Amino acid sequence: MKDPRMPDIYAVIPCAGTGSRAGTAIPKQYQPIAGRAMLWHTLAAFAACPAITETLLVLAPGDDWFAQHTAPPEVPARRFMTTPTGGASRAESVRNGLLALREQGAQPDDWVLVHDAARCLITREQIERLIEACAQDETGGLLAVPLPDTLKCELPRNGLPADVPARVAATVPRDDKWLAQTPQMFRLGVLLQALESGLQHAPEHITDEASAIERLGLQPLLVQGSGWNFKVTYPEDFTLAEAVLLARQNSARAA
Fold first, then answer.
1. What's the mean pLDDT in 102-113?
2. I want to staple 111 with a disulfide (CB 3.0 to 4.6 A). Which of 9, 102, 141, 249 is the partner?
3. What is the CATH topology of the domain spanning 9-254?
4. For position 22, what pLDDT does the model report?
């Protein structure tokens, strides 16, 4: 039996976006890649983690994709559930997902891992690394990678037309800069408080869960991620992600 003192660990995946930058005819999380919808690859990684109690998908109202598609064997139906409570922004969708978990009995001190559906190259090993690093941390944290490239700041445009080329204003030191990834792991109660406060007072600054947590004066843990855990955003990203997934499938067959 589960130790009543041990918090549960949930995953929340917002799936209410349309992915307009991807240039796909359907929401990009449902776009086929390496033989199946992108979302199934993402879910398979979470389903493989025994520490995760359940994964919640936050869908747009009226989204009937799951009613028309059957999950592959790697994603047992008992390992995930859906709620049609997606909001107008990512932060709203995640907030609504947390409220749904709370209504279903999740407790304030339970952990929640929030993950982008379009980061379909996430692996069980990366998820478990985050859980291990954050499980005893007071705040929680996120996967991230140190910034590898030189970072430029654009010269203020001051109302210039959109077709005027951008120019460099300065080079920004990158020594202490990290690229945030997901999952991001925080206590349900604290994350819900942070998102509700951020949505009320500074919605434009809530770009991920960690940014909401930071507004409470907390300092999330940076856990080394992987460059392969990129977010499929633009059309060329699909080609790269598919190549990686196919290589993994071929490697698994050969093992």
1. 97
2. 9
3. Spore Coat Polysaccharide Biosynthesis Protein SpsA; Chain A (3.90.550)
4. 47
